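Please predict the structure of the following assembly.
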Amino acid sequence: MYVYGRNVLREILALPDGRVKVKKLFFTDQENVDRDLKRLQEESRRRGWKVETTRPERLFDLCREKKNQGVVVDIKDFPYAELEDILSSIDSKPSSTLVVLDQVQDPHNLGAIIRTAAAAGGDGIIIGVHSSAEVTPAVAKVSSGLVFRLAVARVVNIASTLEKLKKRGYWTYASATGGENLWEIEFAPRSVLVFGNENEGVRRLVRERADHLVSIPMEAGVDSLNVAAAAAVFLYERRRKAAAG
Amino acid sequence: MYVYGRNVLREILALPDGRVKVKKLFFTDQENVDRDLKRLQEESRRRGWKVETTRPERLFDLCREKKNQGVVVDIKDFPYAELEDILSSIDSKPSSTLVVLDQVQDPHNLGAIIRTAAAAGGDGIIIGVHSSAEVTPAVAKVSSGLVFRLAVARVVNIASTLEKLKKRGYWTYASATGGENLWEIEFAPRSVLVFGNENEGVRRLVRERADHLVSIPMEAGVDSLNVAAAAAVFLYERRRKAAAG
């Protein structure tokens, strides 16, 4: 898998050894590369990774993206987390927030939600294995590399995952039209925010498992927000209230 | 200009006569079109607009987008608003919110910000004529057609526009790192929210004109949000506080 971009490499460099298997790195061979890129190249060599400099056209051939910022990283696979590992790693936190995506299909939205969740202090993202965007190089780039920082788990069944989370003490809040006003929600210390597909929203079977259906107030005649915008509003309302105690 | 998509047409249909010059509409000639599309076609005919049904391949040729949802609308130009007209139309409102974009370049971000601003009750968007995404068919689609509902004005100079707005009683809040905490901001009844370029943020000359530099709290090590996510958080924090009185 050829991921690309400087923030992506920065986040990979920040990982503990072995979390991602780096097969090889490709840097642009253009003469006037800036210091930032040189430093990233040196750091990569210090980690003992194979580094090659090559023509910009070859970088494009590898990752099929012009905006690769002069660096392409060949990694074995994206290191998905196990849900169980996410849960046990945050078990002792007084407050935690998970994000569940029910068939979000646009890679741009998935990447943006990962980035916002990492910024807002989310503890992990859970996506389905079916009819969902998965982590691709484009998702990694849009996430500004934060997909390597925030744990992402894949599950077979979203509805039964919500049941499981409820048994672990989580309360679930699904974004849906006609729900309670987001501003009036008091989030539980263990909160799960659920967002649905770009066109259909959260599926009925998933909605029925949620403890609360929640809506963002909107002007008359506007039906919905883009799912990444909705997630940003939810995640920051959650963070604001957690900070306010 | 060939705009496309059903919500785009819905918003054009909702406009007063003459606001947009509709030259012609193209609908898919596939047999099994759903009722929704049929209704849109009938409504368009009732408005006296020229309607043609044609092959899906031709729709693609016209707008270069596969996800055109079976409808392409040929409009003369995008009807930008004049800043002065926006200001006088909201002069008597007790509370108003304008969004200024300083060199936002990604059409996806511009469209998403327009959609969120319309949902959150913003009164208009101001963009620069230089180095900025302008309203394209892709922007119209991403905005879910709301670009035809929310006024968008173009100005030559963003910095002097902020000066002008301040003279009209507006207070300006620019998104920037190291600024005041968004949650502690008390917005003025007339507020202008300023967002900058995807890489560089708000330019220094524009920042210097702002009454407040404002930051969204973030986890250590995360530098910034995607500008459309940041705008969503700002716009809804503004709305929440305005609603709370």
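Chain B has two domains: 2-75, 83-244. The interface with chain A takes residues 108, 112, 115-116, 118-121, 142, 144, 146, 149, 183, 216-219, 221-222, 224-226, 228-230, 232-233, 236-237, 239-240, 243-244 of chain B (CB under 8 Å).
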